Amino acid sequence: MTVTLRAALAAFSLAACAHAGGVHAAYPEQAIKIVVPFTPGGATDSVARLLANKLSARFGQAVIVENRPGASTVIGAEAAARAQPDGYTLMLSGSTTYTVLPALKPGLPYDPQKSYEHIAIVAMAPVVLLAKNGLPAATAQEAAALAKQHSAKGGLMYGTFGPGSAPHLAGEMFAEAAGAKMMPVPYKGSAQLVTAMIGGEVDLGVDTVSSAAPHVRAGKIRALAVTGERRMPQLPDVPTFAEAGMPDVSFVGWYALVAPARTPAPVVDTLSRAIEEIMQDPQVRKSVADLALDPVYLPAPAFKAQIAQELRTFSDVAARAGITLD
């Protein structure tokens, strides 16, 4: 066999191998879609568009955000799970999709542990315990003592975004830590919740830091404690629950990127490396922090561990509090 023929056969063999298992070496070769199971304009959408812009610049391909809201994120989550596993459909969603709903609602059309390839968690979203101005409690510990005193009378009322929402679960964690019974009152969102607190309809509330901070700074409501490992820049004088002596109140939302299950490992690795570098960009970190989120990069192993731990925790909290979603 001549040298020329051997070289040709070797080149053909390499090309065949690339076609069989490594067409993804040139990934991406076309536009990428990031499904967001929320309406445009919220924090999830903002994070997705930030990542899309950076990925597009890095890959030299269009990266498009497609909003697929509905059914508490189930519509978008199912669409992403059923998409072709080729790396051209991704999903950016929050912990509601990955742990809260799966812990509380049986029979979902997706499995957060099996339906996706887990790329990375990119932001943490602490929540804040709020008090109406007339409540005689200046700290989380004083609010806990007050809640315990009122347990026999039906409990203090606290505002949530409805059964099984992040504020509901965080409120139940606070009630458990206080050894108190409390009464959740559902509202359709932050605006309604804050209005209700200003009007004295409820004693306490749980909301996102981004939504609550302007009202706290304006003196309309008070912030007692935030979840998470560190204080938030938007509320620098408000202690964490750990600082307040209630470390078991640990609910923190988060945002993460996934691909459909069976997406080839080289594609997932390419995306993971890209996201890791993007999340180290000071401009990106500032943009995420400006949304009252904590920018992070937690790769697949930590992402999977977060899901497993929260599924157990939220299932237990829901069982003790009698929270179910039909």
From TrEMBL:
Q: Does the keyword Signal apply?
A: yes
Point out the signal peptide segment.
1-25
The record's listing under PROSITE patterns reads: PROKAR_LIPOPROTEIN
Gene3D superfamilies from the UniProt entry: Bordetella uptake gene, domain 1, Periplasmic binding protein-like II
Q: Does the keyword Signal apply?
A: yes
| Top-level taxon in the UniProt lineage | Bacteria
Keywords carried by this UniProt record? Signal
Which InterPro entries does the UniProt entry name for this protein? Answer: BUG, Bug_dom1
What's one Pfam family here? TctC
Entry's SUPFAM superfamilies?
Periplasmic binding protein-like II
Q: What protein family is recorded?
A: Belongs to the UPF0065 (bug) family.
Q: What is this protein called?
A: ABC transporter substrate-binding protein
